[in-house]
Structure formats: structure tokens, C-alpha cells
Amino acid sequence: MFTTREDFFDDIRGRPTEELLDEWLFGGRRPHVFHTDDEQSAFFEVIQADWVSTEQLSLAGTGAWRYSLNPKKEFREFARNSDIDVINISETHFYETWDQLRGHHRRVWYAVDHHVREQLRRTGQNVYCGFASPKWIPEKGNPFRFEFETRLEKYAGKPVGYRTVNMMFFRNHIEAKDYYRRGIEIAKSKI
Question: Alpha helix locations (H) across the chain?
Fold first, then answer.
């Protein structure tokens, strides 16, 4: 997507955040990790087959843009140890995940200590903001979490260089853009 870090910085500096969000997240550009459109299509087809209520898939982070938005990571370049961040727009899968998380909270709330309750509150704040991941279900043996993690391992194949794949379900495009808006605004203030 960008040939140099300076090109990346120029794009961030030179355009409004909303325009960057629209193009970077949903503009149809081939993410950096894929060498061909066919690789990208094959990768997304496997995910779409597993999560049939998905409205749209996209990548974010270094796998998509080549460079990190995070100044604490020195806007580092995509590398062998980089992971792949998948955006899955699906109200259905978002609510399925919320239901699993909420069920866990109801079962354990009064039996856990203050520290664990704080972690549960943080997860609740994320869900309130319109994004969720089955990885946040604390029960390792939860079938929904297990199925999700098994699928992520399947996606970590040749098209993405056998890198770790992460995925979050966003309730809609608005919530996905809001999540990444903060990163762009921080980057704008630090470059």
C-alpha cells in the first residue's frame, strides 16, 4: 500500500481522518501482506465460509498498511513477527460473541475477586463500543471460543506467511471506523 514510511506519513498528514478511514479500511486496496488479488480473495473466502453472516471483511494494521500507526512501536514496518488483524463486520457475530461474554459474566460475577471484575468491566466497555472477540471469553474450555481459535489457526496459512491471525467482530462500519480513528489521530499528533 505504501512504498516508504514517509509515503505513509504523508498520507496521514495530508488527508482528513474520515477520508483515511474510508479508504484504508474499506476502500478496496489490496492489503500489504498479499502479493496478488487472488491471494486476498482466497483468504477472505475461507473466512466468509466459516462466518456466513459476515457483511464485509478487511485487514488493518501492518498487514494492511505496511506500517504501524503506533508511535510507541516507532511506526514499525510489517515483519516476520507481525500478526494479521482481520476486521469482520457482522452484527450477527458481534451479538453472538456478546451473548457468550455476557453469559460468562452472569455465571461468575459474584464468585471472582476485584481484579477479575475489573477485567470483565473492561471487556464490557469494549462491547459497549461495538467490537468483540471470542478470545475475551475467559473460559478456555468454552466451545464458542475454542471454535473461534481453531478457525484462526486455519487462517494462519500460506497466504499470510503463516503469521498469527486475530479477528474482531464489529457491529457495523461505524464502530470499526471509530475503533481505528483513535490510532490515526494519535499518529497525526506524533509525526
Answer: 5-14, 17-26, 37-50, 62-65, 91-108, 114-128, 143-155, 173-190
C-alpha cell at 134: 471470542
- Tell me the three cell numbers of residue 22: 474510508
d(CA 178, CA 88): 14
The residue type found at 121 is R
Beta strand residue intervals within 66-119, DSSP E: 84-89
The pLDDT tens digits for 45-62 are 999 999 999 999 999 999
Into how many domains does the chain fold?
Answer: 1
Range of the domain at 104: 5-190
Give the lowest-confidence range in 23-32, 129-138, 159-168.
Answer: 129-138
Amino acid at 36: T
The answer to pTM > 0.85 is yes
